[in-house]
């Protein structure tokens, strides 16, 4: 375990480490922001109705790369893999800036998926190097602290996009990512935790191929028809690959993602709720961008340019930052279940209000703040919940489990509701009408309700077991380093 100092309090070195990790994640937030923000421009630039893949390709890649990089970091060091992730993300940003075709553009976006890996590695670095007294808050800051500077990103990307197009924005991002990689190598110490083991590359291929095939089938189904041989083939292949991945993961001694811990209903239900919340957050931002850029000629929207929309986006990411601090501290007094239930209600109200906000800019801005708070709070509490029970040499892999679920659901929500809305309520020249916006908003509301049911189920299981943290799932968990049982939340909060 890394030892920065013998003190249990915050020190200058610990502050610098957290700030450095936050800086590396600002680049990740920038790519997440730029997905929905650039979507209308990308649709027009490449004359496509499959622009949602500009958002999905990055998230899909990160869903596979998060557990892969996390496992590699357990074996070869977290700082080293974080630097590699930044290098790949920087090259991907450069490719997006110069890509002459939509296909190459998507390749660049997929390479940017490695930037999201920095969130997993940053949380693991903090958890294993900081004392238990401050570790939960430090982890919360490490995973959502980028929300505060990230809230300012739209004020940079907005004017850049207005003056130099999306190409200028992604070129600038490539430079920033390169600088972040250099600083990370200079400041963050390497993890000494590394054990012998193998990397499940077969599992990575099966998982990535399954999700990509299913999403491609759903995306094309709304436009070319659900009975199209291509659509049917993609969905069947995706299901078969998914079953193959599950069988592989349950039989391997050291799988890419140890899905055996999902046998604990508390973990499974919270994981499902967390994935649904993450997906809703992505859909919320996509709806937001579409409403913001729509003009009065469509009967709704505000006709904002990228610079003006930055003021709205910053509210969401400021709320995301606050969500990484306040809810995590609230868990000290209350349980994970209570805090996450409250956050679910907040997001439900925000999603419902989105239906009413398509003509009211003040309300439109206010619900971005509340939605960001809910999504950020759920994200930070989930990471702490999982890391609280993970063995030191499985910190990154455990965090990657949730990140994989979250990014997979974000991929689904960046594709499925948009494709369905396109098919059910086709707009003019590929644009969305008010009916399509309402459909996606209702989709978000139903999803949050489902997340609420999962959270309630997790709370009931927790009450029955009379303990909130993760419990041991199968014999030999201590020796395998999968999950360790803690007696009470006070042991790690």
Automatic annotation (TrEMBL):
Entry keyword annotation includes Membrane: yes
Pfam families: MFS_1
Subcellular location as annotated: Cell membrane
Principal cellular location given in the protein's record: membrane
Domain Major facilitator superfamily (MFS) profile residues, every copy: 16-459
Keyword presence, Membrane: yes
A GO molecular function held by the record: transmembrane transporter activity
Keywords linked to the UniProt accession: Membrane, Transmembrane, Transmembrane helix, Transport
Membrane topology: Multi-pass membrane protein
Transmembrane regions: 12-33, 53-70, 82-104, 110-127, 134-156, 168-189, 201-224, 230-250, 271-290, 310-330, 342-361, 367-387, 399-425, 437-458
Annotated InterPro entries: MFS, MFS_dom, MFS_trans_sf
Extent of the signal sequence: none
Any one of the GO CC terms: plasma membrane
Protein name: Major Facilitator Superfamily protein
Source organism of this protein record: Rhodococcus jostii
């Amino acid at each position: 375990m890394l030892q920065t100092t013998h003190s249990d309090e915050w020190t200058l070195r610990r502050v610098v480490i957290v700030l450095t990790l936050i800086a590396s994640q600002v680049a990740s937030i920038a790519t997440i922001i730029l997905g929905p923000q650039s979507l209308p421009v990308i649709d027009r630039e490449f004359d496509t109705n499959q622009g949602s893949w500009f958002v999905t390709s990055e998230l899909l890649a990160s869903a596979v790369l998060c557990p892969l990089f996390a496992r590699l970091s357990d074996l070869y060091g977290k700082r080293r893999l974080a630097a590699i992730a930044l290098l790949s993300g920087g090259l991907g940003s450069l490719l997006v800036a110069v890509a002459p075709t939509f296909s190459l553009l998507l390749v660049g976006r997929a390479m940017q998926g490695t930037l999201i890996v920095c969130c997993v590695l940053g949380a693991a670095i903090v958890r294993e190097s900081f004392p238990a007294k401050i570790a939960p808050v430090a982890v919360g800051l490490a995973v959502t602290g980028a929300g505060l500077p990230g809230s300012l990103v739209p004020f940079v990307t907005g004017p850049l996009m207005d003056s130099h197009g999306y190409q200028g924005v992604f070129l600038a991002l490539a430079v920033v990512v390169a600088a972040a990689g250099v600083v990370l190598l200079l400041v963050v110490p390497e993890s000494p935790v590394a054990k012998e083991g193998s990397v499940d590359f077969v599992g990575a291929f099966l998982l990535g191929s399954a999700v990509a095939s299913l999403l491609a089938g759903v995306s094309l189904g709304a436009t070319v028809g659900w009975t199209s041989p291509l659509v049917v083939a993609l969905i069947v292949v995706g299901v078969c690959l998914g079953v193959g991945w599950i069988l592989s993961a349950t039989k391997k001694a050291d799988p890419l993602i140890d899905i055996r811990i999902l046998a604990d209903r508390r973990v499974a239900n919270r994981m499902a709720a967390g994935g649904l919340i993450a997906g809703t957050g992505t859909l919320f931002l996509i709806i937001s961008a579409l409403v913001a850029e729509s003009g009065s000629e469509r009967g709704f929207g505000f006709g904002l340019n990228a610079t003006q929309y930055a003021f709205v986006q910053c509210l969401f990411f400021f709320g995301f930052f606050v969500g990484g601090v306040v809810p995590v501290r609230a868990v000290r007094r209350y349980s994970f279940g209570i805090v996450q239930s409250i956050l679910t209600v907040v997001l439900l109200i925000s999603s419902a209000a989105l239906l009413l906000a398509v003509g009211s800019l003040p309300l439109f801005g206010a619900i971005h703040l509340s939605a960001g708070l809910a999504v950020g709070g759920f994200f930070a509490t989930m990471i702490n919940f999982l890391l609280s029970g993970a063995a030191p040499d499985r910190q990154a892999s455990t965090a990657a489990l949730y990140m994989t679920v979250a990014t997979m659901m974000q991929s689904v929500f960046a594709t499925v509701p948009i494709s369905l809305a396109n098919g059910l309520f086709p707009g003019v020249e590929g644009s969305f009408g008010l009916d399509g916006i309402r459909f996606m908003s209702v989709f978000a509301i139903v999803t949050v309700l489902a997340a609420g049911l999962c959270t309630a189920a997790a709370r009931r299981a927790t009450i029955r077991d009379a303990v909130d943290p993760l419990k041991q799932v199968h014999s030999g968990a201590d020796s395998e380093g999968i999950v360790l049982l803690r007696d009470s939340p006070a042991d790690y909060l």
